[in-house]
């Protein structure tokens, strides 16, 4: 994506819409996104640099958006910018995730759900909460890792 196309998407008022009447508002078209603080962006950047994910997982445009937002914006008021920044931070979060954490998310919770359903079918009523138990999911993920390696 070229810089001009990105700028048009991020800020249509810069490229010809300033002063023109636009039907509807942006808030009508987009659901409110979670708020992102500037401190959160700075903290994520420090963590990503420390783990070596900043340059590996994020491209130049994404790094630029986070840098410029942290440097020049006091509070993110734009729902569109907040949505973009949230998506970039989520991408970075997934990239900086460790092997065990990734296995807990992908294998552990699904295995815990299976174990929970089997135990419920045998009549164990307390097994309802097992599918969402993080400790059981981590245990099953580590067991899977030990049995299968990193595959």
Description of the structure:
- The protein is mostly helical and 151 residues long.
- The chain folds into two domains: 65 residues; 50 residues, no CATH class.
- The chain is 65% helix and 0% strand.
- The chain contains eight helices and no strands.
- Helix 3 packs across helix 5 and helix 7 packs across helix 8.
- The protein is elongated.
- About 16% of the residues have low confidence.
Main traits of this protein?
about 150 residues, mainly alpha, 2 domains, 8 helices, elongated
- Total helical elements: 8
Assign a percent range to the helix content: 55-70%
The CA-CA distance between the termini, in Å, is 34 Å
- The run of helices and strands is HHHHHHHH
Radius of gyration equals 22 Å
Number of domains: 2
Q: Class by helix and strand content?
A: mainly alpha
Largest sheet: none
Gist?
The chain is mainly alpha-helical and 151 residues long. The protein folds into two domains: 32-96; 99-148, no CATH class. The protein is 65% helix and 0% strand.
Which SSEs are present, and which pair or pack?
Elements lengths: L2 H8 L15 H4 L8 H14 L2 H4 L2 H13 L6 H17 L3 H23 L12 H15 L3
Helix pairs in contact: 3-5, 7-8
